[in-house]
Design goal:
The chain is of the alpha/beta class. The chain contains 14 helices and 13 strands. Strands 5, 6, 7, 8, 9, 10, 11, 12 and 13 form a nine-stranded mixed sheet that branches. A four-stranded antiparallel sheet has the order 2-3-1-4, with helices on one face. Strand 11 (305-306) and strand 12 form a beta hairpin. Helix 2 (20-34) runs antiparallel to helix 3. The longest helix has 16 residues, at 2-17. Residues 1-7 and 9-15 have low confidence and may be disordered. Belongs to the class I-like SAM-binding methyltransferase superfamily. RsmB/NOP family. InterPro entries: MeTrfase_RsmB-F_NOP2_cat, MeTrfase_RsmB-F_NOP2_dom, RCMT, SAM-dependent_MTases_sf. Keywords: Methyltransferase, Mitochondrion, RNA-binding, S-adenosyl-L-methionine, Transferase. GO terms for molecular function: RNA binding; RNA methyltransferase activity.
């Protein structure tokens, strides 16, 4: 009874922190775009007590005792080898019930044993199908979780992590320092370029490119503490697709013929997701959609997907017990001939 009252009090406290300006805006947009599914999604997004956190183990400081403990606590391995290109070196665990491990502190010279993340953020990483020796570009890399996850999958010949925002760049460097041993740091380049210029600076250089683009970030926007800033963000929201398209055009230039490009966001917005990819496919004759239906089928036990109307795009929407996402993932391939 006491626990129930405490939980109710905690949820009321969190509910007060929800930014009404943002919620009202989402209500108008997403009730149209998602239909009835929005009611469930809204409940999860506004109820942090329902949120789940996955635990990505660090292969470079493998925590065998922690892995045993997770098994005993009822955690299960994500995907469980169901994807044909799921690397055995990647170990990620999750629980069906909301739970969170404590974050490890950053300590110079000590590698962290695990990384806490939204499990859906691994889908863009897996969609890249990274192989040993390949040249990879993570165009908008901060805070670094996807770069860390890429290095759990394979040993790239070269990993270029780029971040234009100087504060986020510091965060990226610290993340890499916390998870990656010195020998691997030698194959990683960190840069602070405007991502829109990367294609001109390094044309047709990379086998794989990940564009985890700046986006509306629905979860964090809902808990904006400053209503004026939130209103300003919403008014500027219509400009985001322009930036996202420019970043993708740059990524297309940086990608070698035959290479794979994966685009991802953590928003439900059709304008920032399907519409951006449609624009790239319509305007870049050398880019082809890659069917992702197999990934959706094999991952449906852990994730809930909303229809996107695209064979190359998946949209993870959160629901109770599978509170992952929002996460949009699209996969394109560069053809050999123009």
């Amino acid at each position: 009874m006491v626990l129930t009252r405490l939980k109710a009090k905690s949820e009321r406290k969190l509910a007060k922190q929800i930014c009404k300006v943002v919620l009202d805006h989402f209500e108008k947009q997403y009730s149209k775009e998602l239909g009835d599914a929005w009611n469930t999604v809204r409940y999860i997004l506004t109820s942090p007590s329902c949120w789940q956190h996955a635990i990505l183990l660090n292969r470079f400081n493998y925590p065998s005792e922690l892995e045993k403990d997770l098994h005993l606590k009822g955690y299960h391995a994500l995907f469980q080898g169901s994807l044909p290109y799921y690397p055995k070196s990647m170990k990620c665990y999750l629980s069906r019930i909301p739970s969170r491990m404590p974050s490890e502190r950053h300590q110079i010279g000590n590698l962290k044993k695990y990384y806490l993340l939204n499990a859906a953020s691994l889908l863009p990483v897996l969609a890249l199908e990274l192989r040993d020796g390949e040249k990879v570009l993570d165009l908008c890399a901060a805070p670094g979780g996807k770069s860390v996850a890429l290095l759990q999958c394979a040993h790239p010949g070269y990993l270029h992590c780029n971040e234009y925002d100087s504060l986020r760049l510091k965060w990226l460097r610290q993340t890499l320092e916390s998870f990656i041993p010195q020998p691997f740091v030698n194959v990683i380049k960190v840069s602070e370029l405007d991502g829109r210029e990367m294609g001109d600076v390094q044309p047709e250089t990379f086998d794989k490119v990940l564009v985890d683009a700046p986006c509306s970030n629905d979860r964090s926007w809902l808990f904006s503490s400053d209503s004026q800033k939130a209103a300003c963000r919403i008014s500027q929201r219509k400009n985001l697709p322009v930036l996202q398209i420019e970043l993708l055009r740059s990524a297309v230039k940086a990608l070698r013929p035959g290479g794979l490009l994966v685009y991802s966001t953590c928003t439900l917005s059709k304008a920032e997701n399907q519409d951006v990819i449609s624009e790239i496919l319509n305007s870049c004759s050398n880019m082809m959609p890659v069917d992702m239906k197999d990934m959706a089928r094999t991952c449906s036990q852990d994730f809930t997907f909303a229809p996107t109307g695209q064979e190359c795009g998946l949209l993870v929407i959160p629901e109770k017990g599978k509170a992952w996402g929002p996460m949009y993932v699209a996969k394109l391939k560069k053809s050999w001939t123009m």
